[in-house]
Structure formats: C-alpha cells, structure tokens
Here is the input.
Amino acid sequence: MNSKQIKNTSITILEEVFGTTRDNVSVKSFTLKNEKGMEVSIITYGGIITSLKVPNKKGVSEDVVLGYNSLTDYEKSSPYFGALIGRYGNRIANGKFSIDGKEYSLKTNNDSNHLHGGVKGFDKVVWSAEVLKEKGALKLSYVSKDMEEGYPGNLHTEVIYTLTNDNTLVVDYKATTDKKTIVNLTQHSYFNLSGDFSKPILDHIVTINADKFVPVDKNLIPTGKLKDVANTPFDFRQPKTIGQEINAENEQLKRGLGYDHCWVLNDQNKGFRFISSAYEPNSGRLLEVFSSEPGVQLYTGNFLDGTLPNKQDGTYAHRTGFCLETQHYPDSPNQKEFPSTILKPEDVYLTKTSFKFSVK
Ligand code: GLA
Here is the structure.
C-alpha cells in the first residue's frame, strides 16, 4: 500500500490509498491519531468516516462507527454510513422549493421526496483533500456545480475534520455560493459505543437538550407544527435508554419505525453549545455532542435489517447503530416558520459540530 506519514506536534496523520471508484477515480484514506488512543479514518469518497477508535473504561480502543471495509461496499449500497450529507440533510417535500418566486425541482430519491442531497449527493462524490499539518486536521473540498441535483448556484464547500488530544473530533463546515440557494450540511455517522456491531444500541443512555421536536406525516415530512416533548417518548431531557420507549404506542414512532425525528434544540441563540450525549454502560464510553445547529436528527437504525455486511464478519441487524445528525429542520425551504436555510452570495455558511469521547 502506498502510504506516507505526516506528523505534527501531537496528531499523526497517515495517508493511504483506499480504492478506486467505478468511474476510475482514486480514493484516499487519512487516519488521524492522537496521543490518547483515539484514531479516526476518513476517505475522500463521500468524506466518509470509515472507522473511529476510542478507548473503553479499561483503556481498550475499539471501533465505534458503522461502515464497511471496502470502497466497493460503499458504492454498492450504503445507508449513508459515516458520510457527509449535502446539499440538504434530510427531506424536501416533493423535491420542490422556491426562492424569490422561482420554483426549483430537485432529483427525487425517496418516493416522491428529495433525501440527503438526492441521487448523487455529497456522500457519493470524491472530495479533494488537504492535510492541515499544524492543526491536526484534514480539509475536504468539493465544488457542486450550478443546478447539480437541481440546486441553484455553484457551491464551494469545505469540511474540516480536526482531531484534538481531549478525544474530540471537530467538524467545521463552510460554504459559499454565487447564486441564492439553500444549504443544510451534516455528518451521518452511525455510532455503536459498545464496539460490538452485533449488539443493538437500545441500551445506550441518551440525553437531548430539547423541549420540542418536529412531528412528521406518514412520508416523514414535517407537519409544520412543533410539539413539546413533555409526556412523550421524545423526552430525552433526563437520561434514558433509547430502548425505554422506542416501542411505545405512539403515532410518531410508528411513522419513523422508531426514532427518526428532528429535535428542536434549546439555547439556539447561544451558538456552539452542548446538545446531546450517549453513554454505553458496559464499555463505559460516553459521547458528548456540541453544535451550532438548531436541530438534531436522532435516527436509531430502524432500516437496518441484517442484509448489509459489517466490519466484523457479520451483518448490521436492526437498530445496531444510531445517528445524531446535527442540522436545520427537514423541509425548511417549504416551512415559513422554520429557521431559514437560504444562503446568499454575500454570506458565508459556517457551522460547527463536535463529537467528544470519554469514559465514565
Ligand atoms: C435519515 C433519514 C432516515 C434514513 C436514514 C438513513 O436519518 O431521516 O429516514 O434515510 O437517514 O437510512
């Protein structure tokens, strides 16, 4: 394997060849390693985090993100494992929206709706990579052409993954456009903090700092109303396992086949702040998520059904991973009351999310 070592003060970055796409484009892998036993591998295809190793309470580092061992598997079929999502995370109803009275039609890939950027979203393109040595970071860039998947404007996108020595992976997003457009970028890692991908994630104890969530219709499109989490299975303001109420008699849970909803995060005026945590008692691993975003989609791997191969010689069974996708609310371009996802040529889209790992 063609590899080259780049070392900065404390973060080591290893560059390797990961594979070649069907279209014959070479895909690289970058592994960022710190001094505390944390290591994260990212490939240029989809900006995918293919592996993220963190210590358990005994100091043993194990992989805690779902994914595949080969590029072929990612290209064949992936439910967005570990990928960067753009231009728009989650659904846009009927793939349609208007800006200043002009209607745009996006590619539809989820029945009649547009999901996670369309047929060939940011999860399926090859990004340019640049190692930021002094920062212990990897910068990925992608230029999405005017009208790609139906979106207006040439969108210049940059995502910087930074590993720190307190076992945090920081994800900084930046985008600029030359025409008014919409943007809502996110990261679609599936976590299983047990390090054992054959185990369901139902025993993970989760908190979400949100008083409200976004109810959806039967096609998982927001109804437009926000609902209080109080006295519903959507209340994660006090720690509770994912499994505690996931099978409760509840119309919203039925529609999502479990949790597949966006929470309206508190303290939106504070910018970058703590938003959510997940704790797995056996391993002692704790994940804390911080973000500047107004929402987070908790998706509990409800569509995983044992058909996709895992990295440990098995398959990914129902609910063996969960995602915390920080984002604006789904279908915001069609929902006047939701915070705006419009990006103007004179503005810069800047958001930040970080994933901090520790043991308890
Ligand atoms: C998001 C969506 C889900 C599903 C998953 C990936 O969380 O809301 O409906 O598409 O991604 O399968």
